[in-house]
Design goal:
- The chain is α+β, with helices and mostly antiparallel strands.
- Helix content is 34%, strand content 31%.
- It is built from one helix and eight strands, in the order αββββββββ.
- The strands form two sheets. Strands 3-2-1-5 form a four-stranded antiparallel sheet, covered by helices on one side.
- About 7% of the residues have low confidence.
C-alpha cells in the first residue's frame, strides 16, 4: 500500500514539474521576444549606425538585424537569440522600425504556444508593445 501511494505521489510530482518546465520555457520565449523587439525599436529611434533596425521571428530563433528588411540586411550586425525548443510562434514574423521615429513597418500580433499554454504579444502602429 505504501508503495502504491509513493508511486502516485511521484507521478503527480513529475506532472507538476513538467508543467513548470513548459511554463518557464514559454515565459523565457515571451521575454526574449519582447526585449528584442524593444531593443530594435530603441536602436532605430537612436539612429544607431544611421539605420533602421528590425527583428526576424523564426521557430527557435530571433534575429536582431540592421537594415530596411531582413532579406537586404547587413549580416555583420546580426544578433541571434535562441528560443526554447517546443515553443510554437505564429503571427507577424518581421518587425522593422523606422530610423528616428521608431515606428514599425508592420504592426500586429504574435502568439507563442507550448502544450496548452499560450502568451500573446502585440505591437501597434506606433510601436507600443504589450503582452
Amino acid at each position: 500500500m505504501a508503495t502504491g501511494l509513493m508511486l502516485a505521489i511521484g507521478a503527480v510530482s513529475i506532472s507538476v514539474s513538467q508543467d513548470l518546465y513548459l511554463k518557464n520555457d514559454l515565459e523565457i520565449a515571451t521575454i526574449s521576444l519582447s526585449q528584442t523587439v524593444r531593443e530594435a525599436q530603441m536602436m532605430a529611434k537612436e539612429g544607431y549606425r544611421d539605420s533602421r533596425w528590425g527583428v526576424k521571428v523564426q521557430q527557435e530563433e530571433l534575429t536582431l538585424y540592421k537594415g530596411t528588411s531582413y532579406d537586404s540586411r547587413d549580416t555583420i550586425f546580426d544578433e541571434k537569440i535562441t528560443i526554447p525548443k517546443g515553443v510554437e510562434i505564429t503571427g507577424v514574423d518581421d518587425f522593422n522600425f523606422s530610423k528616428l521615429e521608431g515606428e514599425p513597418q508592420t504592426s500586429g500580433n504574435i502568439s507563442l504556444k507550448i502544450s496548452s499554454y499560450e502568451n500573446n504579444i502585440s505591437v501597434n502602429e506606433k510601436g507600443i508593445l504589450s503582452y
